[in-house]
Amino acid sequence: MSSMVINAGKTESVGIIKPAKLLQQLPAGPRSRQCVLDSRVAVNRTLRGGRDKLLVIVGPCSIHDPQSALEYAGRLVRERERLGTELEIVMRVYFEKPRTTVGWKGLINDPFLDGSFEIEHGLHLARELLLAITSMGLPVATEFLDLATPLYLADLVSWGAIGARTTESQVHRELASSLPCAIGFKNGTEGCVQVAIDAIRAARHPHCYLGVDGQGELRKLASTGNRDGHLVLRGGKVPNYEAEYVDEACRALAAAGLNESVVIDASHGNSRKCHGNQRCVCESVAERVARGEQRISGVMIESHLVEGRQDVGTNMSLVYGQSITDSCLGWDDTVSCLNTLADSIRCRRVARQSTVLSFALPA
């Protein structure tokens, strides 16, 4: 009988706190629970066109410092209150960073930024931060990258993303079908929107699949389907936020029997990896919204307290409030973009009221 030799990398196993136990240790208080419940309804209505507002997902590319994230949240909650009539503002709070090859994978994976990979500590930090932000009345958005982390965090999330690298993944589509919030599927890194449309359709259906429950046990899980999946245009080889690309995407959505609604990601391929270009994307979107465009239901912006980015290395002091992953807009430019988008909604409303009044006046 021939023997089989498995030549593979060694794997070490270290126990991690069970999701149910972490939720017991760090439960959501009444303010956080109400914030999540109310904002999920508001986000879903905005995406479906039931409110004359824009959804704006705005915040750091990824969270590496909870203190600066809380300061950012404190500023953003005031903008949410100030512009709440026009914008449904949700803070981008991303804990997992997808990598093309290797690199820092996010606060959960490596909270001390030193390769120590204290994942359990990262999970505690992540949940504590979400609780602090939602207790301010500020809803949060995150990307669901790892299949286990939603068990620890999803009860506090009002909007989720499936990224360009995972939109085509069957297990992420199954995950999305079970999540309790709206999910934005990004077009592929090359720019193809069909993979995201296929993902939206797949996530709308119930699925039965192998997964992990709150006690950390393997189970056969059954989802009910997520009716609030939608398309996020994030660019590819070329930007795809202009009118012709929105038209093309909406035709494809309609052909698939889906709502003609898209969210524009102002960063990534649409900014050509230059953070300042996000202002141009927001201005372009605002111009079309002001003229009556209804199919753009939201915008995503990568933003932090300090513009740009910085590298993490040994014996280096980090600039407080500056990204260590993708370059971000600074705070002043962020407020300017929010004002521009809010103004576009006001203009659209005025134009609509003028049209209604013209029909109501006698000839």
Automatic annotation (TrEMBL):
Reaction catalysis annotation: D-erythrose 4-phosphate + phosphoenolpyruvate + H2O = 7-phospho-2-dehydro-3-deoxy-D-arabino-heptonate + phosphate
Organism of origin: Paraburkholderia megapolitana
Residues annotated as signal peptide: none
Enzyme class, first EC level, given as a word: transferase
Function in brief: Stereospecific condensation of phosphoenolpyruvate (PEP) and D-erythrose-4-phosphate (E4P) giving rise to 3-deoxy-D-arabino-heptulosonate-7-phosphate (DAHP).
Protein family per UniProt: Belongs to the class-I DAHP synthase family.
Protein name (Swiss-Prot/TrEMBL): Phospho-2-dehydro-3-deoxyheptonate aldolase
PANTHER family: PHOSPHO-2-DEHYDRO-3-DEOXYHEPTONATE ALDOLASE DAHP SYNTHETASE, PHOSPHO-2-DEHYDRO-3-DEOXYHEPTONATE ALDOLASE, TYROSINE-INHIBITED
Any Gene Ontology CC annotation: cytoplasm
One example GO MF annotation: 3-deoxy-7-phosphoheptulonate synthase activity
